[in-house]
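I would like you to sit down with the record closing this message with an eye to the fold:
=====
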Amino acid sequence: MLSIFDQGAFAPCPSPFNLAAFVLRHAVDLAQKSGLEVVGAAGSQIWSFAQLEAAVRGTGTGLLQAGLEPGQIVLMRLGNTVDFPITYLGAIAVGLVPVPTSSQLTEEEVAKMITDLSPAAVLRDPQVACAPHGKQILLSELQAMRQLAPCAYDLGDPDRMAYAVYTSGTSGKARAVAHAHRAIWARQMMVTGWYDLKPSDRLLHAGAFNWTFTLGTGLMDPWTIGATALIPEPGTDPVDLPALLQANNATIFAAAPGVYRKILKGGTTLELPDLRHGLCAGEKLSAHLHSAWNNATNTALFEAYGMSECSTFISSSPAHPARGEALGQPQQGRKIAILGPEGPVPQGQEGTIAIASSDPGLMLGYLNAPEETEARMQDGWFLTGDQGAMAVDGQISYLGRADDMMNAGGFRVSPIEVETQLSAHPGITQVGVATVEVKTDSHIIVAFYTGPTLLDPSELEAFAATHLAHYKQPRAYVHLDTLPSGANGKLLRRALPAYFKG
């Protein structure tokens, strides 16, 4: 049998349609229910569904009054506050195309995005780094818009562009991934295929408001079905999360594996009587970490695999737990294959994980990069670049990247992008970066370089901080006489970790 798993057709997205309207569809019947609670040691900031919708639709009105028009791109440079999702949905509500970005990006990185996107405006918190742009709408103006009359939802073709998110390209250039309004409709496949999410749930997501994992799993999806989203207040230490889970009666917890590792570092039993299970994504969940969490909480972790181009589409769930080291199985409505050079490989053999190009959650394409979009397609499949193998029951095991892409706390990072920035340092002749496992389940980005002399690590750290977002910066630097290379002189990145002495 070939490695193709077809979970059946998924209902088409209705038309006309608007992503923001669908997310807030329960705002009338659940007007007074708590939709969002920003939780911390000092208490909670609570937003009802009615308050959320009023803020979102008022923001939409204000953006139109500021001279913006449907279809225009707006770049978001906002911090880890509730202003982020309100502004994001407000823009989508009136047909604008927001591009959420990490507040960790440097001015240099943002400048490249502005050149790439030519946004009509930058929606900006002055405390967040940003390159110059002719039209900036500041946070204070965005907050004032919430008091305006509600906008009408811009309903239209579900295939039109709704938003774009940046991802590291294999070439080293970050790419804007364009998504349609229908992307939120397709996310319903995760509700049973991963979350087992119910309207009565209180889902606490450990991430920041301005992380796309949080926007989707932590906010949009709970609101879409009428559940309550819980977000820790900015600056919350991961070790304090169990207390917040308990105090706020969280029934589902979502976080990257690294957060679970930090919580479990103390090795104590966690009393979480309301917790049904945990969710994780962003990097591979190890059997060791899963077992440790289960022993500490008596609850399971369910893992999902996905990417910026299609969110998650393979996962384990309470109804279908993963077997052994497997990721899980394709969600209901997905069609997945494991491909080799000649097409789908036999079951059990390694190949590239691919998703059908007809998947309703798949991106529209990379903005301003049609050739790169086309390169990821093959005979009706979108190639993820990740290697896997499919068992006879459809469960899929993850076998690593086909290229050298790195994972930094749930963010995919191109080694070429990091190497390009570091190579500009006058004391570096050649540089290669790779992820290194420094202890069980704990990986860091390490830069290996050649140059006339050993450089002060603090100097290199300061240089990297100027040119790269925090999550892209190496955590260690190793000076070598030469870097490992093949017969053709090409850098062998996968040989670099062996040179790390810890």
